[in-house]
Design a protein that fits this description.
mainly alpha, globular, PAP2/HPO, hydrolase
């Protein structure tokens, strides 16, 4: 005679919630046509805003520079404006299956347009020196990058062309406005210097080398001298 309890047909209890109560984080959840290689590539590209946000934080913390921090603040304000506009316009997305919330204007398009506009203005703020290649190359790359992200929102059916165009225009306008506000109001009036003089910024060695010529060359020369002194190595 067996001491084991008789088998039961009742399913084992689980702590997993019912499937209809679960959802996905739309910030990172991207759906695409698995039979379309272009859609798969664009699904990765459309996540670029997350990479850019990580870049803002990484550069600010590692370089201790004020410029990326100010640019990040503008980027966050740009997102707030997008949320307000979406709640004012209240235009639906092309399909209810993809994406959460309203679709006008496209937040991805507005994000990338701000990023590209501010970056390009930063590259040419003091004018490109004769024969300089970096400002032109960087500008072309960010424009292509932004265009791919913007196009991905239409190709993946998250937005209409009207929604991405509206987002692009809003992002460009705010990017130019924030750049002008920072460099023609905050900086000349000494507000950025006041921030740099705060105990917190001085404790963290925050600096502003935006107008410092050849700052990277000077840092490299300082490192080379340190390398010679401490390691006994020469060029």
């Amino acid at each position: 005679m067996s001491n084991y309890p008789p088998p039961t047909t009742e399913p084992a209890k689980s702590n997993v919630p019912p499937h209809y109560t679960l959802t996905s984080l739309s910030l990172t959840h991207v759906q695409f046509n698995q039979g379309d290689i272009i859609s798969k590539l664009l699904a990765y590209i459309t996540l670029s805003p997350l990479a850019i946000l990580c870049g803002y934080v990484s550069v600010t913390l590692t370089r201790r520079e004020l410029t990326p921090a100010v640019m990040l603040i503008g980027q966050l304000l740009n997102e707030c404006i997008n949320l307000v506009l979406k709640r004012i316009v209240k235009q639906a997305r092309p399909t209810e299956v993809l994406g959460d919330g309203y679709g006008m204007p496209s937040s991805h398009s507005q994000f990338m347009a701000y990023f590209a506009t501010y970056t390009i203005l930063l590259m040419y703020k003091r004018g490109a020196p004769a024969g300089a290649v970096v400002p032109h190359v960087v500008s072309i790359l960010v424009v292509v990058w932004a265009a791919l992200v913007i196009y991905s929102r239409v190709h993946l059916y998250y937005h209409t062309w009207q929604q991405v165009v509206a987002g692009t225009v809003c992002g460009m306008m705010f990017g130019a406005a924030w750049f002008s506000f920072v460099n023609h109001y905050l900086r000349p009036r000494g507000y950025l210097d006041a921030i740099l003089d705060t105990p917190l910024c001085q404790w963290a060695y925050v600096r502003d080398t935006e107008y410092m010529p050849d700052s990277y060359r000077r840092e490299w020369e300082l490192w080379r001298e340190w390398r010679k002194t401490n390691n006994g190595k020469s060029d």
